[in-house]
């Protein structure tokens, strides 16, 4: 039975709710409303006054080849980040789950990268792959590979994907490990007696039973790739070379705060909000139904 | 159809020895129940036969061939787990067909075998349901069905009834017994419930702290327990134990065992021991009279429920036939009554 708490009067419940409501209003509703409002204007070059243009900003954006390119970049980037971080995390979690001795040590070590802020992670990777002083690019040079993510678009994309996925692996690993440990051991043993070897068991029993976890992580990671990777991209490539790593959220920043086109930037935020909203709805509508058993 | 042989089977986890050498020769179609209190190693023993635990020393043989190094899947066994271990994301049909699909059995044959097992277990209506849509007893049947369809050499049961309620347990117990009879598959069954052990077993292994205290037919074990532990564990209510000093004529230094059903109440000063009634439990068909003996030891007498039970605080004597009196040495082993 659900236990309901009943309050006498209104004052206490309102006081209890107020902090959360204020935080949400100040940091989410107000800026979101501002973005929607601003997206309807074009400010003059000095930012002194702005002119109402209706949906002009959106019209311009949808016809802008650079903006459409940013869409493709974002799709490629977020798919790569999600697949890489989920795949790696699942692989590590399966290995850690089989450990009996020392699993605590592995777990602790694998969780550490999550504590590193995206911008710091970006700088770490940048140092390793720096074209002049980077240790990894130096070794790659010895092997005869000329690493230069400043000029090579594919290498730049690879580097930001690696740096963004790295910290994420820890987070996903935790959830996957918990998911794996929640599968009753006897179910795995029953499958082993039924003749399923490791890979068959993973494919037919473990992975399907993990699917609620995987689905949850899919949603969370896509949202992460869309928004929170800003710091990594800003520190490593600043969206370059030639906008090869300019994802939508980076373009919001670049156009708004570097290019000073606040109207277009606001319109981009609104589009981004709608895209992520749609993605989440699609995921819940079509994938969630299949993952719960 | 298969024979199973365990030779001096031992198991240690690190430095802890949990099974100290078990020997048994199981003939084809025999129903063996491994019974004991929790922590006695009975499940570990079963899991060694299944191949889910490695064997520290000794040997498991199925059909005369050593299987110590074989994977569970290569031993041609089927196991029913305490929590059923059904695959929660698969329908009942797929749960039962899983092993056959992996063995690449033709589809038509899979369907036929699952159907006939479902018919046997009255599961036909539920084949398209998921395990969570079934009751405990039905899940139990699915777990058995999954074992049956593979036509294994040996059935292994790991406390399969302990998650069911009392009434269902009695019913499923009967069904398991009938099923095993009709299929004639050699079975090993682990339980902590002595009633299950008594009713199901052709022979039972009574385990105590990793040692097989006694192996034998249920009635033989009941009538002739070889150790103090077996005498106390098999039979309900448990056997009364008294120091030899309290019972005249008992060999010095031994423990005397008397089953509650072999003792009768008599008038004070006419019994072999004397005591006061502390309380009685009337169960209908029988009444358990609990006594506090003059030596402060506890003693239980089982009498017919229709006989009048003595009141609390009533003084009385207790009598039994000397042929029903058992003697156990300091090591717990039975000493032949002189």
Automatic annotation (TrEMBL), chain A:
The chain crosses the membrane at residues 9-30, 69-96, 108-128, 173-193, 205-227, 266-287. It holds the Pfam family BPD_transp_1. Residues 71-283 form the ABC transmembrane type-1 domain. This is sn-glycerol-3-phosphate transport system permease protein UgpA. Its main location: membrane. It is found in: Cell inner membrane; Cell membrane. It is a multi-pass membrane protein. Part of the ABC transporter complex UgpBAEC involved in sn-glycerol-3-phosphate (G3P) import. Probably responsible for the translocation of the substrate across the membrane. It comes from Pseudohalocynthiibacter aestuariivivens. Keywords: Cell inner membrane, Cell membrane, Membrane, Transmembrane, Transmembrane helix, Transport. Gene3D superfamilies: MetI-like. InterPro entries: MetI-like, MetI-like_sf, UgpAE/MalFG_permease. Belongs to the binding-protein-dependent transport system permease family. Coiled coil: none annotated.
UniProtKB/TrEMBL annotation, chain B:
InterPro entries: AAA+_ATPase (IPR003593), ABC_transporter-like_ATP-bd (IPR003439), ABC_transporter-like_CS (IPR017871), ABC_transpr_MalK-like (IPR015855), ABC_transpr_MalK/UgpC-like (IPR047641), Mo/tungstate-bd_C_term_dom (IPR008995), P-loop_NTPase (IPR027417), Transp-assoc_OB_typ2 (IPR013611). The keyword Transport applies. Residues 4-234 form the ABC transporter domain. The keyword Repressor does not apply. GO terms for molecular function: ATP binding. Keywords: ATP-binding, Cell inner membrane, Cell membrane, Membrane, Nucleotide-binding, Sugar transport, Translocase, Transport. Pfam families: ABC_tran (PF00005), TOBE_2 (PF08402). CDD domains: ABC_MalK_N. It comes from the Bacteria. Transmembrane segments: none annotated. Belongs to the ABC transporter superfamily. This is Sn-glycerol-3-phosphate ABC transporter ATP-binding protein UgpC. It comes from Pseudohalocynthiibacter aestuariivivens. The lineage of its organism: Bacteria, Pseudomonadati, Pseudomonadota, Alphaproteobacteria, Rhodobacterales.
